Amino acid sequence: VHTKRTGTGSRGFLGMAYWDRDGEECLAFPDGSEDSEPDYEGLPQGASTSTHMLAGAVAGIMEHCLMFPIDCVKTRMQSLQPDPAARYKNVMDALRRIVATEGVWRPLRGLNATAIGAGPAHALYFASYEKLKKTLSDTIHPGANSHLANGAAGCVATLLHDAAMNPAEVVKQRMQMFKSPYQGVLDCVRAVWQREGPAAFYRSYTTQLTMNVPFQVLHFMTYEYLQELLNPHRLYNPSSHMVSGALAGAIAAAATTPLDVCKTLLNTQESHTLSSAGQSQGAHRHVSGLVHAFRTVYRLGGLQGFFKGAQARVIYQMPSTAISWSVYEFFKYGLTKRQHNNMRIQHIKAEV
């Protein structure tokens, strides 16, 4: 039997080629397996959690930072009673007027708060999702993909993500509002803490969960379903990750817009809204809780109020989730490839 070192097909990982007695060339790796390729959907043992967390953190930061100007527009368009100078026709009109009247950097105000929160939040999000998806799938439907497992994993991942991200969301949205009084992130944190107490940073947490649990269930289940259609062999395929992520994000965003409007109200505590609702003084100086927020939105905006900023939300979520999944899958694939190569090389050196 003659051997040589070679690469494997499209992924190019180090292996060994040999010719059998019939003269056929076969491919084998140092672990004795034939035609073996590293499956980036199933990472090497002992390294999967750290790889998912690193890939998730990078994906989350890039997702939020690249789409931040649209997120700023979404927050303003969801205002129930905006200042006359902050009434916008559509997303492009809003961006144009914000830049023209408030400066070119105004749509990026609060970006640093988002970047600080997005890293750990998305690291927990993707790592827990991947771990639970595999564990629950093996339990519910061994050897195959389970939509129920994907949905359940998405729910748990959302609990962890929102716990880490909610304070950053409060700061970010308050700084995005028209005529925001805060000088910077630290000034906003200090002012909210002193005036409203630490509980203010989690006032919208239950509403965020109420929105994000169905959002992520729809998001993950749609993404996994589209991957089965567009990428059934689950290879690294950037175009399929991007298309699946964009469509999954759009569907989930459109369905959960009413809850997002309520979340924005709870986070920003708009002064005009509180005054109109007769809550500027007395026991109810703040909108608190999902039911209270729903009543306030309906009283001031009617049914249409629940869909304020829907266009901006969908426009934000489509590229946002496409970027998130594409970057996540890219880093997961790249890190896994490097890890696999190192393991193979170490194995070969050990045998030599």
From TrEMBL:
The keyword Mitochondrion applies. GO terms for biological process: iron import into the mitochondrion. It is a multi-pass membrane protein. Pfam families: Mito_carr. It is found in: Mitochondrion inner membrane. It comes from the Eukaryota. Belongs to the mitochondrial carrier (TC 2.A.29) family. This is Solute carrier family 25 member 28. It comes from Xiphophorus maculatus (Southern platyfish).
